[in-house]
Specification:
The protein has 152 residues and is an alpha+beta fold. It folds into 2 domains: 38 residues, no CATH class; 102 residues, Tetrahydropterin Synthase, Chain A (2-Layer Sandwich). It has 5 helices and 4 strands. Strands 1, 2, 3 and 4 form a 4-stranded antiparallel β-sheet that branches. β2 and β3 form a beta hairpin. α3 packs antiparallel against α5. The N and C termini lie far apart (105 Å).
Length: 152
């Protein structure tokens, strides 16, 4: 008889322990191991590259040139993040204005050389990403491709 009571008490204690652990996990007092719970990642998952061509071409007169010279740039923005692409599309006009302002400040002599055009591309990426960051858009534009470039 004593053995039966001992087994019954043991089963009750095991049951209460399991119930207590389960309640503690549900209430958040005990966190299960990471291999049991899949954590949601806050990081963006890169996907296929997406391109946005800025149309019409960016055309400005260069302020610091004599005689007056003009620059026309056809630019395409590239990102591998869907959320970033959507943010670029939503802010297309803001991006366009900022890039036009940057183009107007360029020097004719610098744009004639390859290094000057590459520096301009890097600066354009910075400008676009700054606008996205200010708008709290996650991700970044990975590149700005100059698909057409005329200075005259």
């Amino acid at each position: 008889m004593k053995l039966l009571y001992a087994q019954l008490i043991l089963l009750i204690l095991i049951g209460l322990s399991i119930l207590g652990i389960t309640f503690s996990m549900v209430a958040g007092y005990i966190v299960p191991p990471a291999w049991i719970v899949e954590e949601e990642s806050d990081e963006l998952e890169p996907g296929e590259p997406q391109y946005l061509e800025l149309r019409p071409p960016l055309t400005v007169s260069l302020e610091q040139s004599d005689p007056v010279r003009f620059i026309q740039v056809e630019a395409t923005l590239m990102t591998v993040y869907e959320e970033t692409f959507e943010g670029v599309v939503e802010r297309r006009e803001m991006i366009r204005r900022a890039l036009l302002k940057e183009l107007a400040e360029q020097r004719y002599e610098a744009l004639r050389e390859r290094n000057g055009r590459e520096a301009l591309q890097r600066r354009m990426v910075e400008i676009v990403n700054d606008i996205l960051e200010q708008g709290e858009v996650r991700g970044e534009v990975n590149a700005v491709y100059l698909t057409g470039f005329v200075v005259q």
